[in-house]
């Protein structure tokens, strides 16, 4: 009887530790991937990434934690900034993307992403207004309109 036990939650470090253990035992990358999928489920890690980690451990790396990288952390679209942008727009509907970006110290592109994609505002007569109709509402509206047009003689 084969035991199937897919764990629902796991960390990257845990999976890398399993890869390192199996690699140290001499198991191939493909077999390691099959074991990972059996235990953690199909979305755990690609075969290519498992092989890459095996190669990394072969090159002498010991730790399974991420190595700190240079660069700025991704903080622009954090919930705090989204809330601040929403407050700024509610206080001044004529504020520009440039002013929002300057005030929060984020890029113009990130400010635009927050306003348009996350908060779903759009400009109407130089004022920010929330989008009222979702795509589902628009489809329903179109269907009703077509029904009314068909009902005409």
Outline of the structure:
56% of the residues lie in helices and 5% in strands.
If you had to describe this structure to a student in words, what would you say it looks like?
This protein has 153 residues and is mainly alpha-helical. The chain has helices at residues 12-24, 29-40, 47-58, 79-91, 97-104, 108-118, 135-151; strands at residues 121-124, 127-130. It has a two-stranded antiparallel sheet. Strand 1 and strand 2 form a beta hairpin. Helix 1 packs across helix 3, helix 2 packs across helix 3 and helix 4 packs across helix 6. The mean pLDDT is 86.
Tell me the structural class: mainly alpha
Q: How many helical elements?
A: 7
Rg: 26 Å
Biggest sheet, strands in spatial order?
1-2
> What is the N-to-C succession of helices and strands?
HHHHHHEEH
**N→C terminal distance:** 69 Å
Strand content: 5-15%
Gross morphology is: flat
Largest sheet: 2 strands, antiparallel
What level of helicity do the residues show?
55-70%
Mean pLDDT: 86
Low-confidence runs (pLDDT<50, min 5 residues)?
none
Number of strands: 2
Q: What labels describe this entry?
A:
5% strand, Transposase-MT_Hybrid, 2 strands, Histone-lysine N-methyltransferase SETMAR, Mos1_HTH
SSE layout and pairing:
Blueprint (H helix, E strand, L loop, with lengths): L11 H13 L4 H12 L6 H12 L20 H13 L5 H8 L3 H11 L2 E4 L2 E4 L4 H17 L2
Antiparallel strand pairs: 1-2
């Amino acid at each position: 009887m084969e035991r199937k036990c897919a764990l629902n939650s796991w960390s990257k470090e845990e999976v890398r530790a399993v890869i390192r253990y199996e690699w140290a035992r001499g198991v191939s990358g493909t077999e390691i991937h099959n074991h990972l999928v059996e235990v953690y489920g199909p979305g755990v890690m690609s075969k290519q990434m498992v092989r890459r980690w095996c190669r990394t451990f072969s090159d002498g790396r010991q730790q399974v934690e991420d190595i700190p990288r240079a660069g700025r952390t991704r903080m622009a679209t954090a919930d705090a900034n989204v809330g601040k942008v929403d407050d700024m727009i509610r206080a001044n509907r004529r504020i520009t993307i440039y002013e929002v970006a300057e005030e929060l110290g984020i890029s113009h592109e990130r400010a635009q992403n927050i306003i348009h994609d996350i908060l779903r505002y759009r400009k109407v007569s130089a004022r920010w207004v929330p989008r009222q109709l979702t795509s589902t509402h628009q489809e329903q509206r179109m269907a009703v309109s077509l029904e009314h047009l068909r009902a005409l003689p």
